[in-house]
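If you are new to this repository, start here. Below is one unmodified record pulled from the training split, so you can see the exact layout before writing a loader.
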Amino acid sequence: MKLSVSGRASTAGLVTAVMLLTGGSIADAAPAPEVTAAAAPDIPVANVKAHLTQLQSIATANGGNRAHGRAGYKASLDYVKAKLDAAGYTTTIQQFTSSSRVGYNLIADWPGGDTNQVVMAGSHLDSVTSGAGINDNGSGSAAVLETALAVSRTGYQPTKHLRFAWWGAEELGLVGSRYYVNNLSSTNRAKISGYLNFDMIGSPNPGYFVYDDDPAIEKTFKDYFTGLGVPTEIETEGDGRSDHAPFKSAGVPVGGLFTGASRTKTAAQVAKWGGTSGQAFDRCYHSSCDTTSNISDTALNRNSDAAAYAVWELSS
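And here is the target side for that same chain:
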């Protein structure tokens, strides 16, 4: 998440068509099939954490960060792209320039589905220069990646078209996502039926915050957490500060999840969620200590499952 304001229950398989057999001659018309929607799979948190370990290793090997225009960012993008290519996605790298450095967005399309109804899920892949950015935003990037890989593993065939994205230069002012949105034709913007954003979803002293932008998307996320018995609050700390903002400005329905950044957790929030009162949701926000040690496994697990739940629900 950029610093200043600018701007889940069984493993899913293929959808099953149940043909109802009725009496009568063979010439009789067959009844319409009953179609049961595929259930979202559980996202293994160990898989998500394995991606975080790779992002940490990339940062460590490249000056301690994965920032825009630095070798660590491009290596992060190459890692994600290789996973998606191997899983059968059509990937596209979009190039732009910001602060005299070349930046990249990674877009991955799952073959099939109605391309006039596109459900997107995205996250920013860049860190700040001061650290590896494992919560901000390796957490969102890894969860979106593992959700995309789950689509491939389960052979999910959604009604709508699925697109996943990893944005560059978010930390410089939503540069990559804004570039993407601004370079869409009005026709293609209108085809996006929803954009889901995941920025910081593993904060070590977590809250459970849901964007209150599009009501249908908001309800989808809230329904998931209600099913877990986990209360949520409306997200306010990062409002307008992450990659959903350019989509929202362009009239695209948006939503997302967040576990908190530098804002302090209150006693009332501790009563809801546990954790430490009077301490930031993420004490390592935009700092060198934002490493693989700076993650709540519980929050990362819940939010990764919630991401998959929303992708399945909104694309079926």
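Two things worth knowing about this chain: The two ends are 30 Å apart (CA to CA). The longest strand covers residues 114-124.
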